[in-house]
Amino acid sequence: MPIPTRRPAAFAALVLWLAVFWCSAGMAQDHPVRRILFVGDSLGHGVSAHMDLLLAARGRAWRNAVVEPYVFTGGGVIVRPGQDLLATLQTRLQQPDPPVDIVVLMAGVNDVGMPIGGGTFYDDRWQQAYAQRMREMIRTATDRGIPTYWVGTPILGRRMFAEPFEAHVRRVQYTVLSEEGCAAVLIDLYKLTAVDGAYAEFRDFGNGRAERFRDGDGIHFSPNGYRLIANHILDRIEADLMVHLRPGVDWSSLEE
Known about the structure:
By secondary structure, the chain is α/β, with parallel strands linked by helices. It has a single domain (31-254), classed as Rossmann fold (3-Layer(aba) Sandwich), CATH 3.40.50. The chain contains seven helices and seven strands. The chain has helices spanning 8-30, 43-55, 85-93, 124-142, 159-177, 190-193, 223-245; strands at 35-40, 66-71, 102-106, 148-151, 185-187, 202-204, 210-212. The strands form two sheets. The protein has a five-stranded parallel beta sheet, sandwiched between helices. The longest helix has 23 residues, at 8-30.
């Protein structure tokens, strides 16, 4: 049957749409995301659990994805008895099956007041040893070619943690993550979790009333807060996947 020629523009648009669809579908199959490895501290319990719950709602590309958590209450970048995030990460990534597609790291609050490097708290030796351990955690994943994200610590409400963390730990973390050779992506939570620039236990989630946002201990979150963070992380990962793992499809040509 001959193709009608009365609507060449419409037919051309249809062909373009089908070509883009097939290209996008093929590329999505070439780079599926099946497993997100999440290694972190107690904040990671809530964040990773909500990430896993939210994946299915993100559509077909994520329907088979899962979050595999290795999260420890009291865990941190600095090793402590029974809690070594670096060793945990190394051990898991040495196992080829099931393969890991993305690594998410989240730790720092529990490093306040912890010794490392043989010096006094937060001196040059402490900072150098802390930075080196962060680099080793990141390289464990990035040297294997795995996209790696470091989730920054949210704004803190407990003064005994907040003051030394902001003065020392966060500064070292941001320095490492901004180094030219660092292949990890920082997902910063400070502005996201601040309300009018400050810590707050309640916030308006868009329905006109204040709802509980933090857990009341100055560190952890309510389910509403964890959902906000989990969606923020997934938004960044999803955007990067489209740019870095599935290049070549320019959707802007179809937006006019």
